[in-house]
UniProtKB/TrEMBL annotation:
EC number: 1.2.7.8
Cofactor(s) in the UniProt record: [4Fe-4S] cluster
SUPFAM superfamilies attached to this UniProt entry: Thiamin diphosphate-binding fold (THDP-binding) (SSF52518)
Binding site for [4Fe-4S] cluster 2: 559, 576, 579, 582
Protein name: Indolepyruvate oxidoreductase subunit IorA
Organism: Ruminiclostridium papyrosolvens DSM 2782
Keyword Iron-sulfur carried by entry: yes
Listed Pfam families: Fer4, POR_N, TPP_enzyme_C
Binding site for [4Fe-4S] cluster 1: 547, 550, 553, 586
Domain 4Fe-4S ferredoxin-type: 567-596
GO molecular function, one term: thiamine pyrophosphate binding
Cofactor binding note of this UniProt entry: Binds 2 [4Fe-4S] clusters. In this family the first cluster has a non-standard and varying [4Fe-4S] binding motif CX(2)CX(2)CX(4-5)CP.
Reaction equations catalysed: indole-3-pyruvate + 2 oxidized [2Fe-2S]-[ferredoxin] + CoA = (indol-3-yl)acetyl-CoA + 2 reduced [2Fe-2S]-[ferredoxin] + CO2 + H(+)
Length: 597
């Protein structure tokens, strides 16, 4: 054993290694990304790890290995589970042989997501068990138990940490001795082929299995009841349990407490013991009222008159991340304990800063080139998920829609059908192109929809921390692989007009866009320029003496390196990445470059 200070995601990764995981797959997405990356950093050498092209592929690769008896883990964020839900729902019927953990990190708040969706609904929907850690230490223990449970019931098992568990740190006793898990190999069996007749039998089986899982969960320490001889109770799940424990101590409250480590299926025997003698229960859980509803249904089935309070009764908010202050105040009010206003111990609120593309980001040049090319024309600009979503910010104002991964291209097709008299430009990044962009291009060609797709190829998955993808020519295992050429892919899809260009070659970039937009039918422009975090800039720019302070360089492109200080335009040298876009904007040729040392 060794004591280590670990982030929650690191604890999960080391727990999986300790459990003998053989295969890890995933697609990057905050707050889950570090789990797979930590397994890779600590790989003893025999674990296969990959960033898959999307979550569906990752789920299916992990499933195939689990069919063969391997212990597998697939990682993603909550919106990624939507992409993987097709194989997931069938996998719940087919089952697995080796332990398979589906790690899905939820994002209450949210900090970096389109939605606040709650993965526990997917667990209920698919009839798969879900474990909900309350601390990083518990996440380390739970991931190991999840593999055991998966093999015991031959089903995939969810581990659902939320942002605060993923990214907070704790000192954890790590067992350095790794369990050895030998892969049996694939054995041919009709059970692996899902037919309607098998699906009917499997549906009955997994419904019956829920009772067994509930009994199993009533016997494990992740669920427990504390306190007695009171009429009021509190149930708490996930990180909310940790806040409740602190709040009870601060308020010196006498209350019966139910820790719910497995929100689905609810450990009914433990829950029934908890409800005994209680008049009321307040349920704390982040996001949706999953435990609250399960508790209410349990009371109804037993004709028990205990009132279940929580989000549905207005005692707690539905949306947003919970904090200790929120939990403590709600608990004090529920228990009618007078307490002083709790001081917010969080960092003071910072001034609101508009999200903005990095200084020197080539996406800014791409957006500005399209903006200039479409100037005076009726045009709609559909965006996608990635750094380039920030193109919606002023002064660029070049993202009119953003729905989900890959949808920018298909949404453009829908708008084109409804508004044929406008130009329709869809932006997508290189990693997202491989994720779910290709089917949209195929659809545009198949239905001959007159749109222009602008692929912003910066040679990485930048938003989540520069992970490789099929277009980079290397894998997560650091192997050199065949680089899949985006131009060739788009051509193979049947797009009739495709041009590659450098967005920082500004005049040429504008002309490329004009010609692509004039083309009748689906067209594509591939703007190639690496992310500024990958390369040292060749030059840095400064303002020359002939500057007239017209501020066009500020108001047109919104580069954070350029500001107006003491009556003069200034370029902050520590922020300038030497992209040179500003030199194309200045009408007085008042911006010059100097070679970096």
């Amino acid at each position: 054993m060794s004591e280590k200070l670990l982030m929650g995601n690191e604890a999960i990764a080391l727990g999986a290694i300790r459990a003998g995981v053989n295969i890890v797959t995933g697609y990057p997405g905050t707050p889950s990304t570090e789990v797979l990356e930590t397994v890779a950093r600590n790989n003893p050498g025999d674990i296969y790890i990959e960033w898959s092209v999307n979550e569906k592929s990752a789920m299916e690769v992990a499933a195939g290995a689990a069919y063969s008896g391997a212990r597998t883990m697939v990682t993603m964020k909550q919106v990624g589970l939507n992409v993987a839900s097709d194989p997931l729902m069938s996998l719940a019927y087919i089952g697995v042989k080796g332990g398979m953990v589906v790690l899905v990190a939820d994002d209450p708040g949210p900090f970096s997501s389109q939605t606040e969706q709650d993965t526990r609904h997917f667990a209920r929907y698919s009839n798969l068990p879900v474990l909900d850690p309350s601390t990083p230490e518990e996440a380390y223990e739970m991931i190991q138990y999840a593999f055991e449970l998966s093999e015991m019931v031959e089903l995939p098992v969810f581990l659902r940490p939320t942002t605060r568990i993923c990214h907070s740190c704790a000192t954890i006793d790590v067992d350095d001795k790794r369990l050895e898990h030998k892969i049996e190999g694939f054995v041919k069996d009709p059970r692996w082929v899902i037919f309607p007749s098998l699906a009917y039998k499997k549906h009955i089986h997994i419904e019956e299995l829920q009772h067994k899982l509930s009994d199993i969960f009533s016997s494990i320490s992740f669920n427990k009841v504390e306190g007695k001889d009171v009429k009021t109770g509190v149930a708490a799940s996930g990180v909310a349990y940790s806040y409740v424990v602190e709040a009870i101590e601060k308020l010196n409250a006498n209350v019966k407490l139910f820790k719910v480590g497995t929100p689905y299926p609810l450990p009914q025997e433990t829950a029934s013991c908890f409800l005994e003698g209680l008049d009321e229960v307040l349920v704390f859980e982040e996001l949706d009222p999953v435990v609250e509803e399960e508790m209410a249904m349990l009371c109804a089935s037993k004709q028990q008159k205990t009132r279940i309070l929580g989000k549905k009764t207005g005692h707690l908010p539905f949306a947003g991340e919970y904090t200790f202050e929120l939990v403590c105040e709600a608990l004090a009010k529920y228990l009618n304990i007078k307490t002083e206003k709790i001081e917010n111990t969080l960092a003071p609120e910072l001034p609101v800063r508009q999200p903005v593309l990095c200084a020197g980001c080539p996406h800014r040049a791409s957006f500005y080139a399209v903006k200039m090319a479409m100037k005076g024309q009726k045009a709609v600009f559909t965006g996608d998920i990635g750094c380039y979503t920030l193109g919606n910010a002023k002064p660029l104002d070049m993202v009119d829609t953003c729905l989900c991964m890959g949808a920018g291209i298909t949404v453009a097709q829908g708008i084109k059908r409804a508004q044929p008299d406008a130009k329709h430009i869809a932006f997508i990044g290189d990693s997202t192109f491989f994720h779910t962009g290709i089917p949209g291009i195929v659809n545009a060609v198949y239905n001959n929809t007159d749109i222009t797709v602008v692929i912003l190829d910066n040679s990485t998955t930048a938003m989540t921390g520069h992970q490789p993808h099929p277009g980079t020519g290397k894998t997560m295992m650091n192997n050199i692989s065949e680089k899949i050429d985006i131009y060739t892919m788009v051509k193979a899809c049947g797009v009739g007009h495709i041009v590659k260009g450098n967005p920082l070659d500004f005049g040429s970039a504008v002309e490329i866009i004009k010609k692509a937009a004039e083309y009748q039918g689906p067209s594509a422009v591939i703007f190639e320029a690496p992310c500024i975090a990958l390369f040292k800039p060749p030059v840095k720019y400064t303002i020359k003496d002939n500057c007239k302070n017209c501020k066009k360089c500020i108001t047109d492109i919104g580069c954070p390196a350029i500001s107006f200080i003491d009556g003069k335009v200034n370029i902050e040298p520590s922020l300038c990445y030497g992209c040179g876009l500003c030199t194309n904007v200045c009408p007085f040729n008042a911006i010059g470059g100097e070679e970096n040392e």
